[in-house]
Amino acid sequence: MRGTAWLILPTYDEAENIEAIVRSVLPVLERSRCDGHRILIVDDGSPDGTGEIADRLAAEIAVVEVMHRPKPQGLGPAYLAGFARALANGADLVLEMDSDFSHGPNDVERLIAAVDDGADLALGSRYVPGGGVSNWSRSRQLVSRSGCFYARAVLSVRIRDLTGGFKCFRREVLESIDLATVRSKGYAFQVELTYRALQRGFRVVEVPITFRERERGRSKMNWKIGREAVVLLPQLRRRAPTPSVQGAGAEAVKPPMPRM
């Protein structure tokens, strides 16, 4: 029994992507053998009409709903709002992914399967065997790997891809990590949630994925988001209730066999 799965899609100016990603991921959720599924689009007042497209999809597709927020408040708060609604409505599994096809829709099924196999938190990982990136410049790869190395070193954990934003949580993980006190708003949010899960002894596995550069729309990454991560991570370690989380619950799963 896999229970009910909720997929949270945060959006800001994703009018070029949102309908295509919803229609691509729907059949994946349908074949995932969950008892039920829903897609929640959390739109931060996109001026390009993303919210209107989302409303049309919700009117057409019964399992799609939309949460409108008046303005951009950061990736972390958007996910927290989505998590709160999913948990309040009985979600057993809560997934997060980008809305721009950087994360492959077919990999949603693999994350759910990893949790079904015993993981409490499954991470789509670029940096375990079988994972990788596509269409990235060398400079971007260097920045990404350096960020992951910095996070691992500061927090003393073995997770290879701490900054990734493609995840599947059991509801018990989200209920236990005190979401109301999560401080980070940008990509450090991903590090903070995984670190809190490890602190509490949950089993975290990394599922190899290929991260693909968006083809449409504009990246939301900027220097403020990077600065937040540099400043926040040492604070997370100082506030840790346990002396060390090195290796706690962290492991990788084998890459998928090629389909014939």
Task: Provide a descriptive summary of the structure in words.
There is one protein chain. With 260 residues, the protein is of the alpha/beta class. The protein has one domain: Spore Coat Polysaccharide Biosynthesis Protein SpsA, Chain A. The chain contains eight helices and ten strands. It has helices at residues 18-30, 50-60, 75-88, 107-116, 138-155, 171-176, 188-199, 223-238; strands at residues 4-11, 36-43, 64-68, 93-96, 121-125, 132-134, 167-170, 204-208, 210-212, 250-252. An eight-stranded mixed β-sheet has the order 3-2-1-4-7-5-8-10, sandwiched between helices. The protein has a two-stranded parallel sheet with strand order 6-9. α5 (138-155) runs parallel beside α8 and α7 (188-199) runs parallel beside α8. The longest helix is centred in the middle third of the chain and has 18 residues, at 138-155. Residues 241-249 have low confidence and may be disordered.
What key attributes describe this structure?
260 residues, alpha/beta, Spore Coat Polysaccharide Biosynthesis Protein SpsA, Chain A, eight-stranded mixed sheet, two-stranded parallel ribbon, 10 strands, 18% strand, globular
Oligomer: single chain
User: From the alpha-carbon coordinates, what is the Rg to the nearest angstrom?
Assistant: 17 Å
Fraction in beta strands: 15-25%
Tally of discrete structural domains: 1
The parts where pLDDT drops under 50 for at least 5 residues are 241-249
**Major sheet details:** 8 strands, mixed
User: What is the typical, i.e. mean, pLDDT?
Assistant: 86
How many angstroms separate the termini?
Answer: 28 Å
Identify the CATH homologous superfamily: Spore Coat Polysaccharide Biosynthesis Protein SpsA, Chain A
- Overall, the morphology is globular
User: Helical element count?
Assistant: 8
Annotated CATH architecture: Alpha-Beta Complex
Across the major sheet, the strand order is: 3-2-1-4-7-5-8-10
User: What's the CATH C level?
Assistant: Alpha Beta
Structural category is alpha/beta
* H-E order: EHEHEHEHEEHEHHEEHE
Number of strands: 10
The CATH topology is given as: Spore Coat Polysaccharide Biosynthesis Protein SpsA, Chain A
